[in-house]
Hints:
It is a single chain. This protein is an alpha+beta fold. 29% of the residues lie in helices and 30% in strands. The chain contains 6 helices and 10 strands, in the order H-H-E-E-E-H-E-E-E-E-H-E-E-E-H-H. It has helices at 3-14, 40-48, 94-103, 177-193, 239-244, 248-272; strands at residues 59-62, 70-76, 79-87, 115-125, 132-141, 146-157, 163-169, 203-205, 208-217, 223-232. Strands 1, 2, 3, 4, 5, 6, 7, 8, 9 and 10 form a 10-stranded mixed sheet that branches. Helix 1 runs parallel beside helix 6 (248-272). It is globular. It starts with a helix and ends with a helix.
Amino acid sequence: MNLHRLWSQLLLCVLLCLPGLEALAAPTLGGQTELRTRDTDANRVLNMALTDAFWQSATKNNYTGQLYDEIRLRSYSSGFVSLVTGEGEQDFEHTVVADIVFRQQNEIPRHIEGAKDVVLLGEGIDPVNGAPYTDTFFYLDMTLFYATYTQRMYRLDAGDGRTILYFEQLDESFVDAGTWAQYQSTIQATSDAVERRWVGNAVIPVTKIYGMFIVSPGENRQTRVTFINSLAFGEGTGMIAQMGSKMPPVIRAGLQSGFNACVAIAGSEQKKRGL
């Protein structure tokens, strides 16, 4: 059983577009900005994670000669809150990176083997926080099992050069009954179309996931991206799933693999736009 590979595949899929950097620099958290989510735990942690004080107790690893310059892990509740950050080896346009993260997560399966399917369910303006949102369903191959979850991602232009794209787990309380029925129909059709192995065939829903991408001005390149994430499999989801969400070496391996693999997505999109 290769737990590093198992857990890295899930983190690989949520790290959509994180360009890298060869020189050391601190992530641009930018200080307190009001992020509003329905999940109270997600709301508390995401707002705290925008402050340096939240990360004082985190373990920090710095890197040179890699496509990322810092990884942080902070123990919290049932697992960890993780952070990976970097700038590009080329000048990525701010709007390109923000647009990819917000609206093009369905492109992930074209680049990452572990993503069986990623489907955009809908978009609009959230009635609770007034922010634009996209709703997305993820079906991921974890080698020993499959993992699924739905998320709502919000977009906030902070007015100080940062775009914050933050997300929480989506459920039926977010939309009306008709919209939820449409979402469930799409999710069921997507799940039915996935070709699964006869071994390791279990489908395990993620218990909780939330996080954010912070797209900010870089120090050496045009854009820096910082990705903060918390993901957990709770009681009843099986020992392997729960172990992966609580093992720092496994989490770091996933962050590193995801960062390296997804540099190509940003470069490809920038070329498509002629930038």
